[in-house]
Protein 1
Amino acid sequence: MDSVWVPLFLSLLSLLCFSSVSSLPTPLECTDTSRLCTSFLAFKPSKNQTLTILQSMFDVYPEDITVENESKEYVFVKKNCSCTTNKYLTNTTFTVRANGGSVYDMVVEAYGGLALVSNLIMNGEAKVGAVVSLRLFCGCSSGLWNYLMSYVMQDGDTIASLASRFGISMDSIESVNGIHDPDNVTAGDVYYIPLNSVPGETYPMDHSIPPAPVPGLSSDNVTESQEHHKSNLSYWWILGSLVVVLGLILVGVIICICLRLSSCFAEARGNRTKDPDGKSSHKFHVLRKTSFCCPSGRYICCKSGDWKQTNGERSNSLPNLPKVINTDIFNVEKPVVFTFEEIRTATDGFSDSNLLGHGTYGSVYYGALREQEVSIKRMTATKTKEFTSEMKLLCKVHHANLVELIGYAASEDELFLVYEYAQKGSLRSHLQDPQNKGNPKSSEKDTCVIIVLCKMLCHTTLSWIMRVQIALDAARGLEYIHEHTKNHYVHRDIKTSNILLDGAFRAKVSDFGLAKLVGKTNDGEASTTRVVGTFGYLAPEYLRDGLATAKSDVYAFGVVLFELISGKEAITRTDGMVMKNSERRSLASIMLAVLRNVPDSTSMSNMKDCIDLNLMDLYPHDCVYKVAMLAKQCVDDDPILRPDMKQVVISLSQILLSSVEWEATLAGNSQVFSGLVQGR
């Protein structure tokens, strides 16, 4: 009798093993690689997976997570789904939070069958703090339904129970999944539920949510992590080298300051010798807000004239304002009115040493005005339309990521706008100007090697995290004028030279001379005008129809993202990138051609030639890939498929969090590396 049961038992065991191996779920296939849609993932969280942890696991915001009922047995996660390598997938990252075991087991346990597990993950060992790029199962509807939701079949689930649970027909589920026998479904497989509305209810926020644990800091792995770093000899070599480099930087900065002080005082003494009677109209004074190695190149001593203080009062009179400008532009608030003499004195008579650069409609000067550093835009009186447009918008709109208008001045033939001063210059000068790197031209010729060395040390290379933060700041500024003002505006001239950086390298959008109020149309909000702006940043539909919408700004912002990645200009040469013969092409077309050979973050080697060399390979590949894919979405030829700026802000926020998490794992000491790259 026993001889009969033993073969039967072995056969049953082999059958179960075969079924477990062969039942790995497969993604939904697709053919249109440009397809992008909103999808949902049904996820059954464990008790310790709080809202904060769910956000981190799926790279989403709280409003993207809904619950099936009050018990929160199931949550529904909204994700953008795309057709990648002929399969519908969505990306996320998973952080290993404990040593021991395999990455495969941790991913399967965490995501419950929603993750596509690659061979690389299956064979990998878990190391605390490691960030793993994952793809999750998702799907796009063919048009019969609004959404598809990925659902892992559980024991006891049937097609009939799912149809009743989600309020749809059994035929719909069978049609989407190609099911011929509704009784033949497999637990653990992913099935797609067609939906016409957003599933679930808002995640309840009435209880405190503990923060997600920080990788590498839990009591279970601190000791192991410390022992790992102690045994790593290269870590100490790196740390020792950094100490030496930082010491040399400190010595160079001290030498730089001493040389600048001595030259400044020598010039002051020379001026007093040349003008013993004190008849000169200029004198030297020390500005309270001037930094030692500021991008303006003025360091401590700056030359300016005398003026009569007016204590910054706001005037109801508008002196010298041309009659063609309607004073009704100040119906919200009135800016400070400066006299032409104040402007001329503050800019040292519009000297070349104070010239910061040339904008679309005028020159911009540095000025010391009423004991405050400012930027002054100088325009001819014929530019009243641009002057009025910028005054109208900036008198009504105030945001931390929009440059602040302080006041204005006017003469018979010139107009002046006074803004807050951006100490670090424009983003363009840091990315593409090999000489200045953010510093305006200096009038003196530096022949001393020490001074040249000082300028090199004062220059700050933009690290990866700084670039993402700058992109996020600029996106927030654009989102504000697109969606959160009483009247919605489009900028129409978004580019790296119109993104300014303050002393902390936080970005502010500037130059609203082309900004336009948008009105309601059948297709949304739009403004039809003549085509203005900068080539390389102009959306195809704007060039074709002159129709300016918020999606036109999104296209230009996508080009800015490509510039942040590559360090190249919007119209650039193709040397050594994708073309054998050098020619000038748009950066967007070049990057899109390269991205065709980069299906995921594991193929980043195909994109290496397009990544800014100044990053020195210090960047997380998955985050660079995410920014590149976001830029790709932004420059889509079809404006409907482009994300709005709110979606861009959400994506960049998640990328910034992932980048900071990556930096925390860099050689075990984020502060050392971040401080070196950012020039702290």
Protein 2
Amino acid sequence: MSKKGGATLSGRSLESPLHRRWSAVVGSGTPKKAAGMAVEETDTSGETSAPNPGSSSTMGLLLTSHLIFSFLLTCAGAQDDSDKARGEECAPHSQPWQVALFEHGRFNCGASLISPNWVLTAAHCQTRGMRVRLGEHNLRKRDGPEQLRAVARIIPHPRYEERSHRHDVMLLRLLRPAHLSAKVHPIPLPTRCPRPGEACVVSGWGLVSGKEPGATGRPESQVSLPDTLHCGNISVISTASCNKDYPGCLLNTMVCAGVEGGGTDSCEGDSGGPLVCGGVLQGIVSWGDVPCDTTTKPGVYTKVCSYLEWIKETMKRN
């Protein structure tokens, strides 16, 4: 999360969905990956994942911000970067619905637990060999509530379009239900759409930056991959205002959020993570401008209220 934007959605290159890591500079049109730390891929409940071929079992999960930016030609300046660099560390386990997604031992995206059996994330986060981590705070250390789950079904929206970020939403059915507790708990789905000015929190393990909004210099030297979950306080931005930042790019199934003048947003590594407003899940980190630690543009999120019927029907059928 970039505190230029607390939480920044990142995950696309030049207008592409990004696995939003707070802050981070992304090369135009190229996938964003941030080298990270090793994390033991085990679950205190007994479920373990097979070790990665060719890697030491002690390496466990190599934490990386695997941001996938899909460049939208008509929005050449924007990037899937829901991880605006800066933001503060969340109070441990204050976001019990927060999920970490891993691909073959590498951190890939954020997500949200919406029921004991289901996780909601961005379609651009789809990879092979997906694993779900629940109850995480510090990806380097375990403090008890962590749970590892295999994925039984991966269901991206059937009309997802990578270039336009249209329908950037995906459901994951867990192989085993989550053990619910105060530190692992689903987030309610909305009963209405978000309103301009509404206060929200975006969270993730995306890149973070110590750089102030509008600052210049080499961003590579000022961003870092946090061990701990970070949170950013942002607000819903009106469609009219956001259209000025991303002319011709926004759809009615998207919602913008950020801080006036920048400073807090999602970034690379945050992709797929939650935008929580009033205690309900209103958005999924999808895409945004880059570099996310210096831009003054808001992040763009998949508007969850637009997909309630699809979510409920898909869960019912599967």
Protein 3
Amino acid sequence: MYKKVFSAAILASAAMAMTSCSTSKNTQNENATKAEKITEAEAARPSADEEMDEGYLVLSEAQQNIVKKNNDFAFRLYQQISGMDSEVVSPMSIAYLMGMLANGADGKTQQEILKAIGCEGVSVKELNDCYKALMLSAGKLDKQTTVNIANFIAINKNFRLNSDFARTVADSYQAGVESMDFTNSKSAAHINDWCKKQTKGMIPSIIDQVDPAAVSYLLNAIYFNGIWQEKFDAKNTRLENFSGYTRDIKKVNMMHLNKKFAYTENDMLQAVELPYGNGSYQMTVLLPKSGKSISEVMKEMDADKLQKLSNDMDRCQVDLKFPKFTTEMDLSLNQIISKLGAPSIFQPGTADFSRFANGSFYVSKMLQKAKIEVSERGTKAAAVTAAVMLTSLGPNEMKRVEFHANRPFVYFITERNSGAILFMGQFLGE
């Protein structure tokens, strides 16, 4: 049988940019004596003196459950990719691409896609409604934080999307759909221009060239640009030692700040939350204690335990040292997605994408490119996900603590109220 094939490529880029603020002082409040306990209610929203610019992210119970399932997927994804290098990935970008693929799939293939992203037992409509709610709200929660989620489908002019699929992705995923001549070399530039535009230049390209036999390219882009609520002062950034896993000592630009942050610790790790803007988004940093490794910490961590860490945090005076860094990553996802539960989407003759277009299709390739930049002012992050379709076959005394990230650590960028993980990664010194 003549089998139509589609390959999926995931491009993700996360960038954290914290630039200096000349008015920000890196001083310690010596007179702070009163403890401020963060209750569960306080942990779910910005502090009282922070004005919510647009409003809270409101999800139904079913949608909140999907976010939790996607966060579980994020941890399982991390276990598949973690190694001995600095890494960054956007599980949300992958989930959005998989969501679009689920709408084009049927039968076992559709169920495998849902299983892979942790949504076994969830209907595609429920998934669509949740992702739409996140898309429409994400950029409205904080005027100081830019969050943009965008989707795009380039379809070979020789093929036509099924009308139901086209309507669904246009409505639930706000996806732009464009018919293109894949024999024209300018098609690759057009697709890459979309990536560059949606990620504000952080990801300038997703493909080197368009395969003339391709049926379609499906892309998701997530861009995040947040300003630290408590900015670092560049004058206090200096080269300091960073201890790697192999006992090698590296020099990194270490930023310094002494402010009040949500903090907790246990026998395995220290954890701190660094909010952006009005507090709707935050970075959570997990620093293994001396003698512990990232792998040991993450082996015991999941979405529920990450939330419990947040709920257990106290407001502390934190002597914070945090590296200024950039990490880029190209990640092949075929084997990873297969191991997570969706092997059939890559198998000719087995994959069922009959709801996508007339014919037989399979995913030939899935990848993600990611980038993250951390500096003194805030965080910029971007992710692009692409799928290519081919034809073929309580109050106490204020605690003072040190949080010196001078050894490998893990970080998460999340929406505070829902806990949705936009980006996650690890930094090992370079």
